[in-house]
Amino acid sequence: MRQTSKGCVAGEGEAPRGGNRNSLYDEVTAKIIGQLEAGRFPWVQPWGPVDGAGQGGLCPALPHNALTGRSYSGVNVLLLWGSVIEGGYPSQGWLTFKQALEAGGNVRKGEKGVTVVYADRFTPQAEKARAQESGEDARSVPFLKRFTVFNVAQCEGLGEGQGKELFGDPAPLPEREMVPLAEEVITASGVPFRIGGAKAFYVPSADYVQVPPQPAFFEQINYYRTALHELCHATGHGSRLDRKILNPFGSKDYAREEMVAEMGSAFLCAALGIVPTVRHADYLGSWLEVLREDNRAIFRAASQASKAAEWLLAKHAEYRVSKDGEDGEDGREAPQSKPAEPEQGSITEGRAAA
């Protein structure tokens, strides 16, 4: 099922900033619900097969601003990935109408843009004055505004003449490079990592991840997809990002945390050049229930997912810097001869290796 993109039409200017915050939450949530109800997970399908020469499809990547090179985050990743699928675009690069002009080109007339959102907080001057007089902390006010972007495939003349140079899409990594990169992310996380047993899970009380041995997986890359999913759970530990991760199985809070780990691992896989897959399609009903009753749930979950992926990527960047010129140790626990079983309160994948 294809969703209709909402946004301004080229030639009509930018979509208005600000607007009714609740209607914007409703609009975005309805779009994500519609995709899920149609059986399409907006965090796993924004690409097709890419051949050895980098042709024939779109390689996994996070959507980015083609002029600044900065990756989008949170719910904007889902919105832009969904639009890539809908439009069949060959790029993850996006520009505002004005940026297309700065790049020496323009958006083709009649092209429809995609609405993305920006959330932040600000402190009104009156509140600052009140806080200064009373000696209390100033209260900031949350705000949400929308703006419109266009895929670079909707533009023409980019990079010609005196236009600014654009950031392109990353070249696809061969699988032999994806694997050591994923291994480095696991090591760099510092999360105790055990190998053994027939299930994948994270135990918050003892703070360790366990996954089945790699030969147990039918596809080698699924070992890494599973490991990254569980590491996203581990980022919620109190010593890291401190999310609410100790939740009764089957509860709405449990479903929320699974949604965070699902999206976080998808964002992380895309950043590493690995095609994400759905690890927990069986939670679809629970996710839909959460989204239908709370129009801000997808915003919170996507934001937390981005923070989880960014935390792990930042640890990996630190690891690469420290590893330059050194032969660091693996840093992971050795595989257990007697694999541990999932403990009470573990966040479990609940299925054998696939």
Provide a compact summary of the structure.
With 354 residues, this protein is an alpha+beta fold. Helices cover 38% and strands 12% of the residues.
Core attributes:
single chain; disordered N terminus; 2 domains; four-stranded mixed β-sheet; 354 residues; globular; alpha+beta
By helix and strand content, what is the structural category? alpha+beta
Q: What order do the strands of the largest sheet run in, or round the barrel if closed?
A: 1-2-5-4
The number of helices is 9
Question: What is the average per-residue confidence, as pLDDT, rounded to a whole number?
Answer: 83
Shape: globular
Uncertain segments: 1-9, 11-19, 49-56, 330-339
Region (Disordered): 1-21, 322-354
Organism: Novosphingobium sediminicola
Domain N-terminal: 23-150
Biased composition (Basic and acidic residues): 322-335
